[in-house]
Specification:
By secondary structure, this protein is mainly alpha-helical. About 55% of the residues lie in helices and about 10% in strands.
Length: about 90
């Protein structure tokens, strides 16, 4: 069965460090989740796992995204891959 993964932006992942008092709306994720439900597709938001990995990595002075780019570095790829692998294993 198909599975859709929501990939958050760099801003969404690091937002808590920029403005910890403000929460971000989840309109994009909410919309995607609705589309998935309407079409009987499984859907996973990678945001919580990438935020968690980013917090842990920052404590070691590392990042999940390239500092001068909006793309994941190896740490970000690894964090997302762990989630995808877990989901795929559990869907068997």
């Amino acid at each position: 069965m198909a599975h859709v993964f929501f990939i958050p932006t760099k801003y969404r992942v690091y937002h808590r460090f920029i403005d910890p008092q403000e929460s971000l709306p989840n309109a994009s994720w909410d919309y995607l989740r609705g589309v998935c439900q309407a079409n009987s597709l499984r859907c996973t938001d990678l945001t919580p796992q990438l935020v968690k990995a980013s917090v842990e990595l920052l404590e070691k002075g590392e990042l999940t995204f390239w500092p001068d780019d909006t793309h994941w570095n190896g740490n970000g790829v690894a964090a997302a891959a762990r989630v995808v692998a877990d989901v795929l294993r559990n869907e068997r």
